[in-house]
Structure formats: C-alpha cells, structure tokens
Design a protein that fits this description.
The chain is an alpha/beta fold. It is built from 14 helices and eleven strands. It starts with a helix and ends with a helix.
C-alpha cells in the first residue's frame, strides 16, 4: 500500500491545481513544447516566420489531463487555422495577472477568487471564458473515517480539515461551506497540507481535505477507497477557473481574443465527444507518466469532463452576472475584497457569444 501511495502522490504533481458533436478537423499542427517559466516572458503577439501570431497561454504548474481541450485544439490545428501559434507556459509565474494585464502573456488560466482582488487593486484583466461549468472544489473524506459521515457542510464541525494553504482557493472553498452551515473556521481545526491530500487522508492526519474533487477522488477510487464528498458548487454559485486576458489585449487585439476563444471551444467540444483521443493528446505532453499511472490519469480526465459539460440554454464558455455577484458577495463577506463593484467589470461573454461553431 505504501509504495502504491507514493506512486499516487507523485502522480498528483501531474495535475494542475488549478481544467457536443465533433468539429471538422483543420490541418494538423505539431504539439507544443512544454516550456517552464524561468523568467518574465517576452512580449506576446509577435508574428512568426510561418505568418502565424505567437500567443502565450499560462496554464499552470505542469501539463495535465485537465488541459486536454487545449491540447486537442493544438493537435487538430484549430489554433493554427485561426492564425495562432500557441505556446503553453508552465510553472510558477510571479505576478502572472500583472503580466497578462501588460500584454506580456496573452491569456492565463485563473480562478474568479484570484481575479477579483487583483481587479480591484487596478490589475486590468478580464475573464473571457470558462471551461469548467461548475466549480470543482469540495471537501473529500474517506468513507467510514467520520461518524457521522460527511454529507453536508454542517458535518464538518469539529473536524480536522486540510487546505492547500491559507488564502488559497481551497481555503476559500472551506469558508464557503462553513458559511452555508452558519459555521466559522473556529468550528474546525484547519491544517495546511499543500498537495498531500491523499497521503494526509490515508494517514488520518486530517478528517477531510479541501481539494479539486475530480483529482483526488479519482486517486482514492484507484486505491479502492470509497469516499464522501461535499461540493462547494452545491452550496454556492462560485465562479470556476477560466481564461483571462488583459484589457490592453482585448482593446487592441480583439480579433486575437476571438480567434483564441473560437479554437479553444472547438477543442473543448471535441474533448467531450472523444475523450480517448483527448487523453492521447494529453499523454504527448506528459512523457514522464508511467504506464502504471495512465489509468489513474484517464479516470481523472473522465471525472473532469463531468465538470466541463455545457449547461443547457447557456453558450459554451459563458458565465453569468449572478454567479459573479454571488462570488463577489461571498469574498466581501470573508474580507478577501472590501467593496462591491459592477460584476461586469470582471468578465465578458462577448467572445463566447460570437464564437464560431
């Protein structure tokens, strides 16, 4: 069990913490090279020798199956067909939203709760589309370890609850669950666990972990351990991760933003229609993944796609003013931001509404 646990803990590093009918394939493009961030990137949107426009997209720490839609868009030539030479950036990027606001990076994956404080502090970035249709954060526990079992936020009272770090999305997710049950952090024992959710649960250092449910729930399943979950999305209409762009880029190059959204949504639709091919696209970016860990990563992708499914009556990639207002009200209530502004200052659906099918 310990060796298998070590394999699973190693494999979690392959996941970003942050991710309909098939489209007609465009000319195939070569997959991008994973480029770690070592320093501030150079100015974006420069023309390449092939005549395409170079576009940098900051995705997260490492290549992940949860980025499969973007890999599919790359491999099937959707970005190239839109005139874009997309380069995916990985690693910890210092002040990434500031770089996006300046146009040094064209697009970045970011959560609503990371964008809102930055926007209120004058960082000019706007959320242009989502790929998650519901927030994936929630509480995860091993079934049988808690009495009574964890079924509702009220059941967290008195528990040892792990979060990745204070003031992280998992920490905010815990606050959302507690608030829905009229509880506070004083009613639980908070433990900072980084990315060791599975190990901490198995070793019983914590009773529940706040995490991206598609990730760690799949890992527990692969170990044969039934789980109990409490999803934040069931209690709060909380903005999920999505792509942001700088107001400078949006104003000066709206056609680039539109082309990026067009191609990305095509990749998302294809991923939902053909998950196995999308998984193969992901594997190309994850050469270090051993064959033994591939089934687990396939399970993570399958679980993730349930969170990517479009919502009937809503344009793919769109978010709602109500969700932004609800998220803002919550962040004000816990002191992350200190004022309410027009939710329309955070996001736009213009590009998803105009996206080509």
């Amino acid at each position: 069990m310990r060796n298998r646990l070590r394999l699973l803990v190693a494999s979690v590093l392959l996941l970003s913490a942050c991710t309909s009918a098939s489209s007609v394939p465009a000319p195939t493009a070569a997959p991008p090279t994973a480029t770690p961030i070592a320093a501030a990137p150079t100015a974006d949107l420069a023309p390449t020798a092939s005549g395409l426009t170079h576009v940098q997209v900051a995705l997260g720490f490492v290549p992940s199956v949860q980025s499969a839609p973007f890999y599919v868009a790359q491999d099937r030539g959707y970005y190239a067909a839109e005139g874009l030479d997309v380069e995916f950036k990985y690693g910890t990027i210092q002040d990434v939203l500031t770089l996006v606001s300046r146009g040094d990076i064209a697009f970045a994956s970011a959560s609503g709760d990371s964008l809102m404080p930055q926007r209120q502090q004058g960082v000019a970035v706007t959320y242009i589309m989502t790929f998650w249709t519901k927030n994936p954060i929630g509480a995860l526990a091993i079934a049988g370890n808690n009495n009574p079992p964890l079924k509702t936020p009220a059941d967290l009272k008195g528990k040892n609850v792990g979060v990745s770090a204070p003031n992280s999305s998992t920490d905010f997710g815990l606050k959302a669950l507690l608030k829905s049950a009229n509880l506070t952090e004083d009613d639980v024992h908070l433990v900072a666990i980084g990315t060791t959710e599975v190990e901490a649960l198995i070793q019983k250092r914590i009773d529940a972990a706040m995490t991206f449910l598609p990730n760690e729930a799949a890992q527990m399943k692969s170990l044969g351990m039934p789980t109990e979950t409490i999803a934040v999305a069931d209690y709060l209409d909380y903005i999920p991760p999505g792509f942001v762009s700088g107001d400078k880029t949006i104003q000066e190059h709206p056609e680039i933003v539109q082309k990026f959204v067009n191609a990305t949504l095509r990749g998302l639709r294809d991923t939902l229609a053909d998950p196995d091919t999308a998984f193969e696209s992901s594997l190309k970016r994850m050469p270090e993944l051993s064959p033994d860990n591939q089934p687990l990563q396939h399970d993570v992708l399958t679980a993730t796609l349930d969170y990517y499914k479009p919502i009937q009556g809503r344009a793919a990639g769109a978010t709602t003013a109500q969700a932004w207002q609800t998220t803002q009200d919550f962040l004000v209530s816990i002191g992350v931001i200190n004022q309410s502004i027009d939710p329309g200052q955070y996001y736009t659906n213009v590009f998803v509404d105009k996206a080509t099918p």
